[in-house]
Amino acid sequence: MSRTKLLRSRRGGKSRGELEETGRSLESQLEGHAEEEVVVASQWQLIRWRFVRHKLAVVAGVVILGLYVLAIFPQFFAPYAAEDRDFRNAFMPPQRIHFFSEEGFSLQPFVYGINKDVDFVTTRTIYTEDTSQRFPVDFFVRGGEPYQLLGFIETDIRLFGVDPEATVYLMGTDSVGRDVFSQIIHGARISLFLGLMAVLLSLTLGVVIGGISGYFGGKVDNVIQRLIEIIWAFPSLALWMALTAALPRTWSQTQVYFALVVILSLISWTTLAREVRGKMLSLREEDFIMTARLNGNSTPRLLRVHMVSSFTSHIIASLTLAIPGIILAETALSFLGIGLARPTVSWGVLLQQAQKVEALTVAWWLFLPGAVLVITVLAFNFLGDGLRDAADPYSALD
pTM for the whole thing? Predict the structure, then answer.
């Protein structure tokens, strides 16, 4: 039997033309794999093979993985602590890393010293490089405030640093001399993990409530769908603002953090619940579900093992696309001053400094957290698109 016929045989209930088109699509997607491998491959193996062919999604996955590594070990990768202040170098523009000097090429990167002058017209401090002073950038340096690596290993090692007499502000400093680059890395822990935690909670709510709605139908389905429509009737941002504004001002930042996770989850579960409901409605009358029911499987087992597992890949793709929405929501709330605040550092908190128009002309580098946010959101979207296409056997990944 040809590979196309074997692949077509994996899908039933479709017209001949659809099956032929599916066979050609799958055959082109899985090119390079032996016919025997394709026949015995599991659903997850087919998804992995199709995903690898989606180059942009693979690159996005690597970017996201790197961001989460930074978020897990921010004290190691950031040359300074989030709240380290250097008042003498406030609003310093980004420093350049050099490999070439008047003496030629240097294998070890270095930074020049800094000269400061005052523009008496604008009263602004003008920073220029002092080429007579060179400070090498060392790796795996010790210094600064000790921290707990992984929560229990006390150390003061950082990935890179310079002599204490010099500075290495790769993305400049803010109004009180805090390193923007270090703050972005520290803020990644809050922004990325808040989005991940909120999505995991919304996953639980969406799958459970959507599964109940689609499986039982009738009055239960009607009540749940009306509840979803009521939630959708409110503008998301306005609803988030109303709920976060109601939080007690006496709460600590830790309490506010977990409250934001719950609030964002209670609103974002509705989309996934609708998708799960649709899948349940189409699956509950399938032959294998009827067989499992006649074999005495309980309702929870029927939902968990036989129904939800059949579209787990679709759920994963949907959640990947939902994470950037949660990150943007937290950023918007913190930017507006009703979410997280100092001393907690998130990307939304960092963007509060860019609210004034003057920041665009005086310190454009304060917008760099926004650029990192855009890259992160795009990476999640590209990864989600790749996972969604890989999970869909009728999607060609040319």
Answer: 0.81
